[in-house]
Amino acid sequence: GDNFFKSVNYTIEVMCAEQFSAEKEKLRDVEAKILTKRAELSKFETEYREVLARFTEMTNKYAQEMQAIDELLKERNTIHASYTISPLKRNSSSSKISSPFNGSKSDEECPTIEKKPKDEKKSRDRTRRKKWFKIHLKVDKRKAC
């Protein structure tokens, strides 16, 4: 652990002489201060250990919260990525473009592309640009869902 005062045995030799009375008083004062500091450090050690345990607990909680936030951010990014990938589904019964964002259509329908006359050979090679939140996406007309 940390360095706190530990129990120590010591021997003090004091020579009683009238000429050392001032030093004797200083020594008693210093000894009293040392005992006071030792008691304060004992109380501080207990408080320190409680605070250290609380700090460790809070550090662990912070790490768990950050991990949860990272997982939520990854989940959000995958959901955002799913918006940029729009699969096309050809529907032979309808020649309109249907959008999954229309309220009247079901969520399962994919947008279909208008069919051009067969004599236009270049129309098959072109790609159609589609906007989603000002993001230009190239959609190949030949790809099916």
UniProtKB/TrEMBL annotation:
Biased composition (Low complexity): 88-104
Biased segments, Basic and acidic residues type: 105-123
Superkingdom of this protein's organism: Eukaryota
Record keywords: Coiled coil
Coiled coil: 27-75
Disordered, as annotated region: 88-127
Keyword DNA-binding belongs to the record: no
InterPro entries with a match to the protein in the record: Plant_DnaJ_domain
Keyword Coiled coil: yes
Protein name: (wild Malaysian banana) hypothetical protein
The species this protein was found in: Musa acuminata subsp. malaccensis
